Amino acid sequence: MSKSKAKPLSLALQGGGAHGAFTWGVLDRLLEEQSIEIKAITATSAGAMNAVALTAGYAKGGRDGAKAGLETFWRTVSDMGAPFSTSMWTQSPFASLPFSPFNAAIAFTSIASPYEFNPFDLNPLRDALDKAIDFEAVHHTPIDLFLSATDIESGRVKVFHDGEVTRDAVLASACLPQTFRAVEIDGHAYWDGGYMGNPSLFPLIYGKAPRDVLLVLLNPIARLGIPKRVPEIQDRLNEITFNASLIGELRAIAFVQKLLDDGMLKEPMMKKYQRLNIHAVRGGQVLRDLSLQTKYDTSWVFLTSLRDKGRTAAENWLNTCSSYLGTGTSAVDLRKEFLDA
């Protein structure tokens, strides 16, 4: 199919640490699909890293360059994070116990801040970005880019757009306050964007982005059963916390769509609201059996296994839901999932 007939698509990429390699796989497969043209990306944390890897590569070499850029970035993350990877912990017979090395490390961060246990501000993510991403190329990509971070003092989301997207903006978007020092940019200090926008959808509404939005979700929204063990409680609390802002935005979008569908808005008001057609690759369902500590596993075997799962999920989505693109219809029933309930 010629590029002129390709269906424009916006992407919304969640954060999730090393689980972002699943998103790498989704993007890798989408870039091979000539019937789709990625025009805008809104992203947070690991999603932001995937976004800059893709756009830097795309600016230099189109789709093939984007695929190569993603692989280079994740290979760099694996190489530079190997000494700190949790793969040894996750494969240990003691991994799920309350006194496992990972849980001990988590407990330690509750009594010591990164300003105390990391006085030299070591950050392997910063090193990986410096080595793998050409931010000058990012600024010359034809793809609109929106990265979310949380302004610590105001408690509001900050969206870095196009030329504002720098290495520090990406680090701000991925700054877990228990692990890293706050990232300061132009007099403002930021933490991980997942607290206030994981990812933020409103930039797509107010911008000129395609109305069709593909969410790549890494955290399960629903999970049956009550967690009773410490690791299970940590996992579920993490999922709820980092899904909250997205659920709020999806509820708002569902409400506006209900007003539009039910004819409850008069003509002058209708011009102020635009419909987003929401589609989803639900990585959370594929990754739900992985514990929180695997989000810190940067072993190449683990990352490529997630990439392959992401490619499979994208293939399934292309076969079952891509036909919704360009029809003005969401593949996700927002009213049923986020409003009626």
Label the structural class: alpha/beta
**Cα Rg:** 20 Å
Catalogue the unreliable spans: 88-102, 104-108
* Portion in helices: 40-55%
Note the main sheet.
8 strands, mixed
Mean pLDDT rating: 86
Write down how many β-strands occur, each being a DSSP E stretch of 2 or more residues: 8
How is this structure best described in words?
- The protein has 14 helices and eight strands.
- It has 341 residues and is α/β, with parallel strands linked by helices.
- Strands 1, 2, 3, 4, 5, 6, 7 and 8 form an eight-stranded mixed sheet that branches.
- Strand 1, helix 1 (20-30) and strand 2 form a beta-alpha-beta unit.
Structure, briefly:
Helix content is 46%, strand content 14%. It has 341 residues and is an alpha/beta fold. Helix 1 (20-30) links the parallel strand 1 and strand 2 (36-44).
Helix and strand arrangement:
Blueprint: E1 7-13, H1 20-30, E2 36-44, H2 46-81, H3 87-90, H4 101-109, H5 114-117, H6 124-132, H7 135-138, E3 144-151, E4 157-161, H8 167-173, E5 183-185, E6 188-192, H9 202-206, E7 212-217, H10 230-261, H11 267-270, E8 277-282, H12 283-287, H13 300-320, H14 334-339
Parallel strand pairs: 1-2, 1-7, 2-3, 7-8
Antiparallel strand pairs: 3-4, 3-6, 5-6
Helix pairs in contact: 1-2, 1-13, 2-6
